Amino acid sequence: MRSPLPDGMSLAAEASGPRRRRHLTWGRVARGSVPYGLILPVLLIVGAILAYPLYSLVRLAFQRYGLSELIAHKGISVGTKNFSSILHDQVFWHVLLRTVVFTIANVGLTMVLGTLVALLLVRLSTWVRVVLTSGLILVWSVPVVVAVQVWYWMTNYQNGVLNFTLTKLGLGDFFHHDWYGTTFSQLGIVTAMIVWGALPFVVVTVYAALSQVPRELVEAAEIDGAGSVRVFRDVTVPILTPVLLILTSLSIIWDFGVFTQPYLLIGQAHTGPSNELMGTYLFEEGYLKTDFGRGAAISLVMLVVVAILSVFYVRKMVRMGDAA
Amino acid sequence: MSGRTRRLVWNGVGLLLFVVLVFPVYWMISTAFKPEDQVNSLTPTWLSLRPTISHFRDAMHAPFFWNDLVNTVIIVGVTVVIAMTLAFLASVAVAKYRFTGRKLFIVLIIGIQMIPGAGLIIPLYVVLARYHQVNVLSGVIIVYITAVLPFSIWTLRGFILGIPKDLEEAAMVDGSTRLGAFVRILLPLVAPGLVATSVFAFITTWNEYIFARILLNDQSKQTLTVWLSYFLGTSRHTDWGALMAGSTLTAIPAVVFFLLVQRKIAFGLTAGAVRG
Amino acid sequence: MRTRVFVAVVAAAALGVVAATASASGQSHQANKLTVWLQVDAQSGWPDAVAAANAQFAKDHPGYTVDVQYQNWGDHLQKFDATLAGGTTPDVIEMGNTEMTKYMAAGAFSDLTSLKSTFDNSGNWLKGLAASGAFGGHLYGVPYYAGSRVVTYRTDVFAKAGIKKLPTSLGQFTSDVAKLAAKNKSVKGFSPVYFAGTDWYFAMAFVYDYGGSIARTQGGKWYGNLDSPQSVAGLTAWKNFFNAASKASKTSDENHPAPYDVYSQGGAGAIIGPGWFSCCVGTKYKATTAQFVMPSHTPGQAMPGFLGGSDLAVPQGGNTALGADWIKDFTSTAGEKILQSKGNIPNATSLLGTSVNERAAARSWFVPAAKHWVDVENGNILRNMLATILQGKLTVKQAAANASSNIALVLNGA
């Protein structure tokens, strides 16, 4: 069956053009079902894997579910007690505030530095670009579990190479400097490590988007007499915007819930109310204390908070699709 | 400043950045080659003059290295291929079609990302145990697909939306069916996006630890990151040299993968790209 | 047409994936397989003991195979929790002795009381270790092995500092520390005796040595006891000893960095830790390394050391009879002898030898046998108290009082 679509019709025009009333034909039904067919496999897999866990997460949040209940496979309903105990916990509010600040700092640093490096890449000689990109890929390919060990080792108190180098550079006496001595310093190292680990991904994605910028458009703009700032603003930025929005919202989501880096770098032996982030707080309260009901409630609270934090970007992204 | 000096300055900045960023990786690799007494020395050894490959030998002879390498390749390969195919189709749907429930789907996809992964560990384990998917590779694969799909759909959607409309129109060929046209025209245009996304999917799954750790029990069925954790999991002596050698070995395939795909599809590394 | 075919193919493929994964065979309990979770220490340290137990088990149960799955200390409890939830528990699991009580209280293990007599040496089990595997008068955990803490020191450094006789009291040791410090002034960051600022195992040894304790129980209720005069005296002695002897970070723990790594680089005259530390002192100092038992403040006595160790248990849902049988093979006299030869303390007094490690075990202390003890440990209450004391944020008395009330809260399940 050939499509009854008129020849040469623009895709975008078809997508958002005025809807004309037409006869319902088999061809139209088939075409109407195309997008559903396209998303069906995704829905099936996600549904099969996540539907039950999500349901049980919500159910757990309203139950007392400790180790005994876990073994008996049966929780005890407690209404909203898990939530009220969290919301009345001073520690929770401190952790939440700390995590929000931490997220803003991490996302801000990641996005600004990432975009700058991507813009730098296009200004480099080819060989330097290859060198720098390979370096980024190297960084990216180190598993987090490994990177944590290397970072811990470089910053350790006894013979960390960071203390050695800073001392050698004449920046002061860093012999036996304890980078894990204060909360600020602990989270500072964690931030450095997260930004370091996230940069390659952001740079590569933004750079890929930059390479989508058609040469002809840039040249056309230049012929029109546009300066480089204007070319950047009028040609590059619109093409980068979708990718930047996505990266920003994903970074917010990831950094808000980050667990591996702070937990392993600071170490279980030092994780506590004074330095917890939401991810480690969830782990300590839910898993280490085997209070799974409370853990589920914390998960749901986190879901709400991160939804609020990212709603601005998410709405923009959804709208962006409509305008296209 | 002339163009040449400006380029020189940028190159300098680029190289400095390279040194700073790569240092931890360098430290990992150089440590892997250091003899035992230099590994932990109070004064750091920048580059050993007595390099040794004994740590690499130890790591490769550690139980199940080859086994777990094969497992990881299978898990990651299957995950990337399936996830990329499904994500591309779904992203075409959300970027180029208007249909009832489209917005809901988009929000659902990003909503999935917002659920704290740590909160799902036990419920997910229960589901997979019910399907008999614990301690088998397919269980991990399906979890990984679920994990990388949302991101991939979002990114690909962004890349598709980023394609300038006039290019798309100009490329439209008479008489194509819509989907056929999409695939034929969009695919080359979003190629850089597909590469970036698949690199992401590859590295995310290659490096994943927590779910692989929870879901796979037999050492013959585990992945390389889990294999690495055995260097640290004992209450006893940690063999730093072997750990760093093992880490280096673990990272190599990811680098190779990247080099392969960036060659296959012109990623723009050497293409000169654009002056932004 | 092509579109529809394409969509149909993709949908079918996706369904195929779901169907295939749903029908593939999984773990669960297979008829002729016994699943055992041991810590990775066994794999690297005494695989021969494991192999011997497996061989014995196979001989007694023809057709059965034993699948030993090695675990890490860092996450084995979370993995265990997941299997409890999913109904895929192993048949035998190794548990750290401080981890046992919570799981016994929750009913995670099968009752092995009636089988006790079938285990070798069960009449002579180390008291401290056996206590960690018992709850409410029932046996759930079979003692596997133990380890004590000793002083590992450099004979050459001690000799150079003019120390001719090993210290037999804390006072004597402290004056030796002063000699070591004076003699090694030129070595930057040198610790006469290196131990981490928040090594609570060592700090609590002082508390118990001075007659104090972490917590006490009365009428079914727990009370923090770190603020008792004896405990405060112990903590004060510990603080003074740290300030005199160790240049470790005040916030560091006993694993970061590993004390033997400091030692092997010449950064310490002695280190405190498990007896097996002698393994890793570095080739340079191998010949000049020896060990002694940490002396008490009471001359001639040993300071009570923390008795670490492991138990073996059969989780609910595991095969109790076969699981217990494998434990019997693994903890047999022959098996324990192998463990002993690798520097561990065997599980029974009748097997004890005369190594420093084993002598140190003669006077030991153990954590309160409270259901919620592990939460005190995971909550880092003791570590935080120690760091606060060393950093001078609070006096010993204040810090101990805070920790004491926190401990009481946690132990009483609040």
Overview of this protein structure:
The complex is a heterotrimer of chains A (324), B (276) and C (414). Chain A has 14 helices and two strands, in the order H-H-E-H-E-H-H-H-H-H-H-H-H-H-H-H. Chain A is an all-alpha fold and 324 residues long. Chain A has a two-stranded antiparallel sheet. Chain B is mostly helical. Chain B is flat. Chain C has helices at 2-23, 40-45, 47-60, 76-86, 100-106, 127-132, 155-160, 170-183, 200-209, 229-245, 259-264, 320-330, 333-341, 356-360, 373-378, 381-391, 396-411; strands at 33-39, 65-71, 92-96, 134-135, 138-139, 141-147, 149-154, 191-194, 215-218, 221-224, 268-274, 289-292, 305-306, 308-313, 364-365. In chain C, strands 2-1-3-14-6 form a five-stranded mixed beta sheet. In chain C, a hairpin with a 2-residue loop joins strand 4 (134-135) and strand 5 (138-139). In chain C, helix 3 (47-60) crosses helix 12 (320-330) and helix 9 (200-209) packs across helix 10 (229-245). The longest helix of chain C is centred in the N-terminal third of the chain and has 22 residues, at 2-23. Chains in contact: A-B, A-C, B-C. The interface between A and B is large, with 125 and 120 residues.
How is the secondary structure organized here?
The complex is a heterotrimer of chains A (324), B (276) and C (414).
Chain A lengths: L10 H6 L9 H36 L1 E2 L2 H6 L3 E2 L3 H7 L2 H33 L3 H15 L3 H11 L6 H8 L14 H28 L4 H9 L4 H29 L3 H7 L11 H11 L3 H32 L1
Antiparallel strand pairs in A: 1-2
Helix pairs in contact in A: 2-14, 4-14, 5-9, 5-11, 6-9, 7-12, 9-11, 9-12, 10-11, 11-14, 13-14
Chain B lengths: L2 H30 L3 H4 L14 H8 L3 H32 L5 H13 L2 H14 L6 H26 L2 H7 L6 H12 L1 H17 L2 H6 L8 H6 L10 H25 L12
Chain C lengths: L1 H22 L9 E7 H6 L1 H14 L4 E7 L4 H11 L5 E5 L3 H7 L20 H6 L1 E2 L2 E2 L1 E7 L1 E6 H6 L9 H14 L7 E4 L5 H10 L5 E4 L2 E4 L4 H17 L13 H6 L3 E7 L14 E4 L12 E2 L1 E6 L6 H11 L2 H9 L14 H5 L3 E2 L7 H6 L2 H11 L4 H16 L3
Parallel strand pairs in C: 1-2, 1-3, 8-11, 13-15
Antiparallel strand pairs in C: 3-14, 4-5, 6-14, 7-11, 7-12, 9-10
Helix pairs in contact in C: 3-12, 3-13, 9-10, 16-17
